[in-house]
Amino acid sequence: MKRILMFPGQGAQYVGMCRDLYQSNAEIKNLFDTVSIIINDDIADIMFNGPDSRLTESRNAQVAILLHSYSAYTLIKNKIEPIAACGHSLGEYTALLSADVFDFETAVKLVRRRGELMSEAGEKAKGAMAAVIGMDVEKIEEAVKEIEGIVVANYNGDGQTVISGTVEGIDNAVKKFGEMGAKRVLKLNVSGAFHSPLMNYAYEEFSSFIDKFTFNNPKIPVIMNVTADYQRDADKIKELLKMQIVSPVRWTQIMKLMLNDGHKNLAEVGPSKVLSGMAKKTSDQFDVISVEKSEDISF
């Protein structure tokens, strides 16, 4: 079965995630043990028992989503022949892991530090994010140019665009987009202005951290968030991961690339099925399977 693999990002976490996979597979229990040693905390307790406030902390959520997604991937990797891989923001790390750009322990260390630094950056430069629903992206891009302190953070497709920036800028944008006729403008419950220049501290610190690790060229192409294009070069991938922290996630463009190249068979691997929903809303040509729980693996 040939498909493009998709891996979800932050926001897909929920208390109880991955419990059934953990209980049914010794290899996955070993992955949990490895993570707990690296982060010096009980990841199973965080994921299964929460509370939600603890799981939602960026340093925990990013590790938890990577772990759930990779656990599911280990169970289906011999059933799917991947054409390419991609991931939404944090999910890009799971995509690169599936393509053997780095090993599991490296992936955990990278996303743990990434989550910590993004939270620290949010404390140093207070920011906010909001989802603009039901408005043409071109109108949003034009309006963003006129509002000081904000940028487009996520192009999520089909009438949903996420903006990011200063608290004042986002408040002004919420008001302006409401007046312009957006169906809804929702402020997001996040700890900072992700994918914006306000993450510059995280960008600089993470750049130094990631340079300590050796990357391999991917065994399959990985479609990167920053460029919305296939990448096969390890050094370029490392630079794009640095840039991703302060750059928009071009998910709409990634889905259009897949469609234009005739890649209509997709598999979302990980919690919450968010990307599956986005793909189906983008085009009814996509055939999407979601692999989140044990019951999803019987194909």
TrEMBL record:
It catalyses: holo-[ACP] + malonyl-CoA = malonyl-[ACP] + CoA. GO terms for biological process: fatty acid biosynthetic process. GO terms for cellular component: cytosol. This is Malonyl CoA-acyl carrier protein transacylase. SUPFAM superfamilies: FabD/lysophospholipase-like, Probable ACP-binding domain of malonyl-CoA ACP transacylase. Residues 6-296 form the Malonyl-CoA:ACP transacylase (MAT) domain. The active site is at S89, H195. The gene is fabD. Belongs to the fabD family. Its EC number is 2.3.1.39. Keywords: Acyltransferase, Transferase. One of its GO terms (molecular function) is [acyl-carrier-protein] S-malonyltransferase activity. Signal peptide: none annotated. The keyword Cytoplasm does not apply. The keyword Acyltransferase applies. PANTHER family: MALONYL-COA-ACYL CARRIER PROTEIN TRANSACYLASE, MITOCHONDRIAL (PTHR42681:SF1). InterPro entries: Ac_transferase_dom_sf, Acyl_transferase_dom, Acyl_Trfase/lysoPLipase, Mal-CoA-ACP_Trans/PKS_FabD, Malonyl_CoA-ACP_transAc, Malonyl_CoA-ACP_transAc_FabD, Malonyl_transacylase_ACP-bd.
